[in-house]
Design brief:
The protein is an alpha/beta fold and 409 residues long. It folds into two domains: 8-29 and 262-329 and 368-406, Aspartate Aminotransferase, domain 1, CATH 3.90.1150; 34-260, Type I PLP-dependent aspartate aminotransferase-like (Major domain) (Aspartate Aminotransferase, domain 2), CATH 3.40.640. It is built from 15 helices and 14 strands. A hairpin with a 2-residue loop joins β7 and β8. The longest helix is centred in the middle third of the chain and has 19 residues, at 262-280.
Length: 409
């Protein structure tokens, strides 16, 4: 049993004591070997080479390319800029088909360049962009397709590649969640013309801020390297239009430190995922999103679907209960890009073509995991969820009767 919650009335949302004194987040940064990191940072400071393709960036790129099994890996300041530069390097224009059920940066990276993101529905079972829907949305203005490996679970790359070839459009993957994952025995990174990774602080592998583009296309890699550094080819020779997308040396040092602990980070994520899976096996209406354990997975996200009909409490009300306990669960990805600005103004009826996106955006909840969360804490989290689910109708009734400002979120 919980230390702070013994019964229904002890839930913090109903003025009980929170189960946790400090907030538990979906993902807190992994650090790795702090002493090793500080040695690298001190080396950077001693050499006074802080950026501009220093030795740590070069080493990180080599090691990432080897791990991903690709010819080129270009380190970037963040994944959003990496997406922007890659789409520009590929010559994308007009319309590009993307899922709406993704982080807003996928769409913004296009709209920022005056490319129209055309929102496509996702497959109900995989949560990834549905190739059958992609096929229907291609028009003469379509120049590309961006698939998102949501939560590290791979898209149907074969079907998307076939569609791209048949219609002569570019295929790019947003692999922000998928570092360290494989598909059909091949590491994600080598699918499509290019794949873009995020190494943001909240990712299980991070470079403080950062990202990377992986590709086997020599010409594309050369163009991206120019574009990320203002178009410089040599000391004072600008040969192409570009911007500043470079990764700095301290970020690269963080990445190299993280690579040394990568297996440990994944092992903890896997342990946490299995603990949640064990705990939810007997909870009605809470279904954990599973991973194919025949493939490599990073188990970075623990995601569940809340069936309101079965457990009597909606996803949003369950989130209110959890937040009151300092369990900061997240609605990934609510409410869908098509319901955010500027897209909801541009495409007010987009939801009519996105039934699965609309459904899932109201059911999905991401739970705390990572090296900052213990097995014992996961047990507590699950007991709170079980208590709320077992008393779903009463939770719903009491929350409805409460003043909004009394509900801790």
């Amino acid at each position: 049993m919980l230390d702070a919650i013994k019964e229904f009335d002890d839930l913090a949302v109903f003025s009980g004591k929170p189960a946790f004194s400090e907030k538990l987040h979906v993902g807190r940064p992994n650090i790795g070997d702090r002493n090793g990191l500080m040695e690298k940072i001190n080396d950077v400071l001693d050499r006074r080479w802080l950026t501009n393709n220093g030795k740590y960036v070069q080493e990180l790129e080599r090691r990432l390319a080897d791990l991903l099994g690709v010819r080129h890996c270009i380190a970037m300041c963040n994944a959003t800029v990496a997406l922007e530069i890659t789409t520009r390097a590929l010559g994308l224009k007009g319309e590009v088909i993307v899922p709406s059920f993704t982080f807003i940066a996928t769409a913004h990276s296009l709209q920022w360049q005056e490319i129209t993101p055309v929102f496509c529905d996702v497959d109900r079972e995989t949560y990834n962009i549905d190739p059958a829907c992609v096929e229907k949305m291609i028009t003469p203005r379509t120049s590309g397709i961006i698939g998102v490996h949501l939560w590290g679970r791979p898209c149907d790359t074969d079907a998307l590649r076939s569609i791209a070839r048949r219609h002569n459009v570019k295929l790019l993957f947003d692999a922000a969640h998928a570092f360290g994952c494989s598909h059909n025995g091949q590491m994600i990174g080598g699918f499509g013309t290019a794949e873009v990774f995020s190494f943001h602080a909240t990712k299980f592998f991070n470079t403080l801020e950062g990202g990377a583009v992986a590709t086997n296309d020599d010409e594309l890699a050369a163009k991206i390297r120019l574009m990320k550094n203002f178009g410089f080819a040599g000391y004072d020779n600008v040969v192409y239009i570009g911007t500043n997308g470079k990764m700095d040396e301290i970020s690269a040092a963080m990445g190299l430190t993280g690579l040394e602990s990568l297996d440990e980070f994944i092992a903890v994520n896997k342990r946490n995922y299995r603990k949640y899976k064990e705990e939810f096996a007997s909870v009605s209406g809470i279904e954990l999103v599973s991973y194919d354990e025949h493939e490599k997975n990073n188990y970075q996200y623990v995601v569940c679907e809340i069936d309101e009909q079965m457990c009597g409490v909606s996803r949003d009300n369950l989130m209110k209960v959890l937040h009151a306990e300092n369990i900061i669960a997240r609605r990934y990805f609510y409410p869908g890009c098509h319901r955010m600005e500027p897209y909801r103004s541009y495409f007010p009826h987009a939801g009519l073509l996105l039934p699965n996106t609309e459904l899932l955006s109201g059911k999905v909840l991401s739970l705390p995991t990572g090296t900052a969360v213990s097995v014992e804490e996961i047990g507590k989290i699950c007991r709170v969820i079980e208590l709320a689910a077992d008393n779903g109708p009463e939770v719903t009734k009491r929350l409805a009767a409460m003043e909004p400002d009394r509900i801790r979120v």
